[in-house]
Specification:
five-stranded antiparallel beta sheet, 10 strands
């Protein structure tokens, strides 16, 4: 046969992200502070590591109707912590069940009873490495799930390492040194376009 093409999915692919940040008006003090913070962040170019939140809402806790409180629960007298935040709680209770080796594409995780990992759900490790459930391989009938993941593990992890399905993040860096360059129209309006790649 002619014209046949072999395509192989690599488990080593890197995450990529794009983001455009609008700059509305330079006269606002808050906006000025944000622009200065942005300049400071991108000054290091590709050497700067940025922890990017993954806003997805498709983790096992959400599928079960359990939405994390995200730091909104106050003390018993109704007051928050000194920084204005409250208590937070995760619902999935996800953790590795057994050690996982570097470059592994299959792991065993423990989830709270009644929760289920599904292909496409994303989670991060404590060091900010992002992964996605590729397929569910096995279930022990209680709380242990064997799942295939992508990309492969960037590091080795110990038994009991917590997985974050609810507020996953990804360690990234700018794709080029001149990414997120600021430009203004009429010296007031503009935008900064980010191109990010996973920081290995």
């Amino acid at each position: 046969m002619t014209g046949q093409e072999q395509v192989v999915v690599s488990p080593a692919a890197r995450w990529k992200a794009s983001l455009t940040v609008p700059i509305a008006d330079r006269r606002s003090g808050d906006h000025q502070d944000q622009v200065l913070a942005l300049r400071s962040l991108v000054r290091g170019g590709r050497a700067t590591t940025i922890v990017v939140p993954i806003r997805d809402g498709r983790g096992p806790a959400h599928r079960a109707g359990l939405v994390p409180c995200k730091g909104r629960v106050l003390h018993s007298d109704g007051s928050p912590f000194s920084d204005g935040s409250g208590y937070a709680q995760g619902y999935s209770g996800a953790a590795l069940s057994g050690a996982a080796a570097l470059n592994a594409v299959q792991i065993v995780v423990t989830l709270a009873t009644g929760l289920q990992p599904l292909p496409g759900m994303r989670f991060s490790m404590p060091d900010g490495r992002l992964h996605e459930v590729g397929n569910v391989i096995a279930f022990d009938g209680a709380s242990r799930w064997t799942i295939g993941i992508t990309p492969w593990l960037r590091a080795a992890y110990d038994d009991g390492t917590e997985l974050d399905f609810e507020t996953a993040v990804c360690r990234m860096r700018l794709a080029s040194d001149d990414a997120a360059a600021l430009s203004l129209t009429l010296n007031r309006f503009g935008s900064a376009a980010f191109e990010l790649v996973e920081a290995l």
